[in-house]
Amino acid sequence: MKLICSKSNLLRGVNIVSKAVPTRTTMAILECILIDASTNEIKLMANDMELGIETRVEGEIAERGVIALDAKIFSEIVRKLPDSDVMIETDASFKTVISCEKAKFNIVGKSGDDFSYLPYIEKNDAIVISQFTLKEVIRQTIFSIADNDNNKLMTGELFEIIENELKVVSLDGHRISIRNIELKNNYENKKVVVPGKTLQEISKIVPGGVDDDVLIYLTDNHIVFEFDTTTVVSRLIEGEYFRIDQMLSSAYETKVIVNKKELLDCIDRATLLVKEGDKKPIIMNITDGSMELKINSFIGSMNEDIDIEKEGKDILIGFNPKFFIDALRVIDEENVSLYMVNPKAPCFIKDDEGKFIYLILPVNFNNAAN
Amino acid sequence: MKLICSKSNLLRGVNIVSKAVPTRTTMAILECILIDASTNEIKLMANDMELGIETRVEGEIAERGVIALDAKIFSEIVRKLPDSDVMIETDASFKTVISCEKAKFNIVGKSGDDFSYLPYIEKNDAIVISQFTLKEVIRQTIFSIADNDNNKLMTGELFEIIENELKVVSLDGHRISIRNIELKNNYENKKVVVPGKTLQEISKIVPGGVDDDVLIYLTDNHIVFEFDTTTVVSRLIEGEYFRIDQMLSSAYETKVIVNKKELLDCIDRATLLVKEGDKKPIIMNITDGSMELKINSFIGSMNEDIDIEKEGKDILIGFNPKFFIDALRVIDEENVSLYMVNPKAPCFIKDDEGKFIYLILPVNFNNAAN
C-alpha cells in the first residue's frame, strides 16, 4: 500500500475513528485503526464490537492495500507531523513507513485480515436531523442515564419516532429527562434504546452545523449515523424500555416561575457545603412571591431567598441539589416553571410547548433539623 | 469582627494566600486562612511553616477582630458568591456568617491565637527586579531542579548576587540551567538557595507586569518577596550550593547553529516513540551542513535531517530527549548554538552575551544498534 494525503485531513480522520478504539481490550487488533485503500477511496476504520466508525479521507492512492496500525502510536505520530503532505507506505511484512517532509517513522503494522469490519446494515428510510439538533438533544438528556450497569436499559437512551416527532428519554431511577424534537418528515413509528457511550462519542465527532444534516437509520439491532464522510454503526440495547407515560401526570398543587440563572447559581453555591457522598438535600420553602433555599451539612449552613411567581399551595420540599443543577444547566429558557404536588411526589420542570420535561424525585428530610 | 469588601478583591486575596496552604498536614490550623482585621487594615494570611504569604485586601472594618477559616471551604464560598459586596461577621465562639446579596453562609472558624504569623524579618537593602523578569527567570530554570528529596540542595535554585548581576542556577545531576540577569543597582555579594516550591508558587501569584517591581530581601535563613500589596516569606535551604564554575569550560570541538523551532519540533516528534521509563536516547549525527536525528525504540524508529551551520569536527552523540526539549522550550532566540567536545562530555547551549547557559550531559548508546 502506498498513499499520500494532507496531514490535516489525515488527522481529522484519525480523531474521528479513534472514538471507537476501546481503552482496554484483550484483542490487540481492536486497538488498531484500519487504513483501507483497497478500492479507490482511503477509508479509516475502528471498531470496538459495540461501536464502529468509518470515515473517508481525501488523498491519493499510489498502490492499493490495507494495513492495521496501533491507534495510539499512529494518532500520536500524525498529530506531531509537520503540516504538510504525509506518505504512508507498507510492504508485505506490514512494515510501515510514515514520512512527511524530512521526518520518517518506521513502525510495524498488522494484517487487515483479522480486523472486524463494520457490519453491513440494510438501509431503510433515513431519519433526517440537523447536526446541531442531534448534539443538543444528546447534551440535554445524557446526564441522567445511569452510571452503572445494574440495569442495562438505564445506561442507554430511548429514541422513539412517532410520526414527525423524535422523543429522546433518559432515566436513572431518580429522575427522567425528556426532549421532543419536531422532524421535517413523517416516519414509521419505531422505538430503540441507544447506548449512552455511543451518544457521547457521536456528540464529540459531529461538527454540529445548523445547516448540516445527520442521517439516522434504525434496524432491530443497530443504529447508523451518517454525516459528512463518516458512518457510525452502533449496536442497540435489547429489551423493552420503561413505560414513562404513567409517571407523567399534569396535575399539580403548586406552580413556581423562577429565573433560571438565579436558581442555578443559588443551588450551585449551596452544594459547596456538601461533600461527595454526603447526601444532604437542598430544602425549598416555597411561599407567596419567595422561595427560601436552605442547606445544612457538617461543614456549615447556607440560606438564600429568591423572588418567584407562585400559583397554588405553599410547599416545603427537599431535593438532591445535583439533579436540579444538571437539569437547569441544559435549559436555555430565561425563566423556568416548576410543578409540584406534595413533598413526596416528583417535581416537574417543563415548558408550555412540550419541548422538554425534567422529572426529579424529592428526598425525605428531617424538617426539625432544618 | 465585622468587615465588608468586594467579592473581587476578596477573591484575589484568597487566591494569592491559598498558595501557602499545605495540601496535607496534621495541624488543622495550617489548613486555614487567617483574616486579620485587628488593626486598620484587612490582611489575609496563610503559612505552611516553610512558605508564608500575607496580602492586604481593600475593604471596610466595622468591628476589629481576627478569625481563621478553613481555606478550602472559605475560598470555595468566596468563588461562588455573586459579584457584589461581601460581609464577614464573627462572634466570640468563632461562628462566622458570610453574606452577599441574599446569600448567607454559616460556618465555624477557629481562634487566630494558634495561627503561626509570618516571621519578622529585618529588612536590609532591597533587590529590585521587574515582576516580568522574575517570572521569566523562574520559568527558564525551574524545570531542572531535582524532583526528589535525595539531595535537598538540588530541590532549590541558587540565587547569587554579584554586584549588579543576579545569577540563577538549577541542576539535577544530569543538567544545569543558568540565567544571568542585569540589575539596575549594585548590591553586596550574597548567595542563597531558594526552595523550588517557593519559586513555583511565586511565579503563579506575581502578576508579571514589565513596569511593576518585586522587592527581594535576603537574610541568612529567609527570602522575602514584596510586590503590590503582598509579602511572601520563605525559608531558605541550608548548605553550600554546588560549585559549577569548574564544569563550565569554554573549549569546544564542534559548534552547531540550528533553528530552535525545527530542532525542538523534531525531538518532540521523536519522543512519541519513547514510553515513560524507557530510556532511549536521541542520537545526533552531526556532519557538515546537516544534523541527522535518530531514535530507535521497541515501538519503531524515526529519523529526520535538519539543516545546520557547523564549525569543527563531525560528532555522533546521544542525549535524553526530554532534557533538550526542556531547555529549548524556554529559549526565546530563533537560532541556538550548541557546543560539544566529545560524545562523553557535556553539551552547552548558550548565547554569545552570556545571558543563559544550558549544560546537558550526553548518554551512552550502542552505536551498532542505531
From TrEMBL, chains A, B:
Q: What family does the database annotate?
A: Belongs to the beta sliding clamp family.
Q: Cellular location of this protein?
A: Cytoplasm
* GO cellular component entries: cytoplasm; DNA polymerase III complex
| Provenance organism | Roseburia faecis
Annotated DNA polymerase III beta sliding clamp central domain ranges read 129-241
Q: Which domain of life is it from?
A: Bacteria
List, for all copies, the residue spans of the domain called DNA polymerase III beta sliding clamp N-terminal. Answer: 1-118
Q: Name one GO biological process term.
A: DNA strand elongation involved in DNA replication
Q: Which named protein is this?
A: Beta sliding clamp
The molecular function terms in GO held by this entry are: 3'-5' exonuclease activity; DNA binding; DNA-directed DNA polymerase activity
Q: Boundaries of each DNA polymerase III beta sliding clamp C-terminal domain copy?
A: 251-362
Gene this chain is encoded by: dnaN
Could you confirm whether the keyword NADP appears in this record? no
One Pfam family name is DNA_pol3_beta
Keywords, in A-Z order? Cytoplasm, DNA replication, DNA-binding, DNA-directed DNA polymerase, Nucleotidyltransferase, Transferase
The protein's assembly and partners: Forms a ring-shaped head-to-tail homodimer around DNA.
Role played: Confers DNA tethering and processivity to DNA polymerases and other proteins. Acts as a clamp, forming a ring around DNA (a reaction catalyzed by the clamp-loading complex) which diffuses in an ATP-independent manner freely and bidirectionally along dsDNA. Initially characterized for its ability to contact the catalytic subunit of DNA polymerase III (Pol III), a complex, multichain enzyme responsible for most of the replicative synthesis in bacteria; Pol III exhibits 3'-5' exonuclease proofreading activity.
